[in-house]
Amino acid sequence: MKTNSLSKWISLKIYQYELTFGLYMLEPWEKYIFNIVFALFFTFFMFRGIAMFPDVTNYVVEKSKYYLSMESM
C-alpha cells in the first residue's frame, strides 16, 4: 500500500514539474535535453555556491565586526 502512495506522489511531482516549466508540450527527446541542461546548470551553481560559501561567510563576519565595533579593519 505504501509503494502505491509513494508512486502516486512521485507521479504528481513529475506532473507539477512538467506543468511549471511547460515540458508537457515537448517531445520526449526535447524533455531529455532540457532536463540534462537544467541538471548541469543546477549542479554548476550548487558547486559554485558551496565553494564560495566559506569566503562569503568570512567576508560577512568581518564586515559585521567592523560595523558593530566601529573600529578600522
UniProtKB/TrEMBL annotation:
Entry keyword Zinc: no
Q: Which InterPro entries match?
A: Ser_palmitoyltrfase_ssu-like
Bilayer topology = Multi-pass membrane protein
Q: Which GO terms describe its cellular component?
A: endoplasmic reticulum membrane
List keywords of the entry alphabetically: Endoplasmic reticulum, Membrane, Transmembrane, Transmembrane helix
Instruction: Report any Pfam family annotated for this entry.
Output: SPT_ssu-like
Main localisation: endoplasmic reticulum
Query: Which stretches are transmembrane?
Result: 32-53
Subcellular localization is given as:
Endoplasmic reticulum membrane
Q: Does the keyword Nucleotide-binding apply?
A: no
Tell me the protein's name: Uncharacterized protein
What organism is this sequence from? Rhizoclosmatium globosum
